[in-house]
Amino acid sequence: MRNYESMIGGGETMGRLLLVEDDSAIVTLLEQLLTGEGYRLDLARDVQQGLHLTLVRDYDVVILDAELRAIGGLDLVTRLRSAGCTTPILVLCTPSPSDHVASLDAGADDSVAKPFDPAELLARVRAIRRRHLDQAHALPIRGSRRLDTETRQVVHNEMGDIVALSQRECDLLAVLARRPKRVFARELLLELAFPGAQSLVVVDTYVHYLRRKLGTSVITTVHGRGYQLGTI
Predict the structure, then answer these.
(1) From CA 160, how far away is CA 149, in angstroms rounded?
(2) Beta bridge mates, 139
(3) Residues 6 or more apart from 3 whose CB is under 8 A from it?
(4) Cβ atoms 156, 182 nearer than 8 A
(5) How far apart are CA 66 and CA 79, in angstroms?
């Protein structure tokens, strides 16, 4: 079985999913099902791997098992939501209504009972992915401002002011805005917002550009650690 960083399916790409599962039979089934639909699939075998991957990569949907052996999957849901992660989460759980309620109360977007019907699971993945993509292009920045990643504009909801961004400025601000509570090391920002770039100076330069356009408080410098979206 491929490891959690290299489990990537072929074919036409519909999006990137993370599966957090330690049951080999379920892994095999979902790998065949999801990659057969054209999704790229990463695998994490436990909560710690799942937490790391979700916080450093962008996924369309996280699918996790509530009954992970070492640490329960709902603990991962709680940790991600506490960290400000808004990635959609689909929980695999028992048919008990109380388990479905517990999944939703922990912060999951949806749950499906095991053993699941493959067609139903695919439909639920499509549904929560579609809802997320409909909302993902509008990211809150500070106060009543939001970043529209489709038009590459920062819009002030109350005053109607619009600030146009370059693609690279938009990419950097979007990374920070999707994880507003996270402090990003410069090296990680270089990897996520500027793939292929080699110098950390690129990160500092575009932080400067964004501050010049949107105000110095839009991005906070956390000395010795990196950058964070400015606090409201």
Answers:
(1) 17
(2) 147
(3) 43
(4) no
(5) 14
Beta strands 153-156 and 145-148 are antiparallel
What is the residue whose two structure tokens read 């939501």?
Answer: 81
Q: Which of 91, 118, 113 is nearest to 37 (CA)?
A: 118
Cα 29 to Cα 26: distance, rounded to the nearest angstrom: 5
> Sign (positive/negative) of CA torsion 97, 90, 50, 135?
negative
8 A C-beta contact, residue 78 and residue 107:
yes
pLDDT value, residue 138: 73
Tell me what pLDDT residue 1 has.
33
> Residue 137 and residue 192: Cα distance in Å, rounded?
17
Task: Please list the ranges in the chain whose pLDDT falls under 70.
Answer: 1-14, 133-137, 157-159, 231-232
Peptide bond into 115 cis (omega under 30): yes
Report yes or no: 173 and 187 within 8 Å, Cβ to Cβ.
no
Q: For residue 183, give the 3-state DSSP assignment.
A: coil
End-to-end distance of the chain based on CA atoms, in angstroms?
Answer: 45
- The radius of gyration of the chain from alpha carbons, rounded to an integer in Å, stands at 19
Report the run of H or E that residue 219 belongs to, with start and end: strand 219-222
Q: How far apart are CA 183 and CA 201, in angstroms?
A: 18
Q: Is 218 helix (H, G, I), strand (E, B) or coil?
A: helix
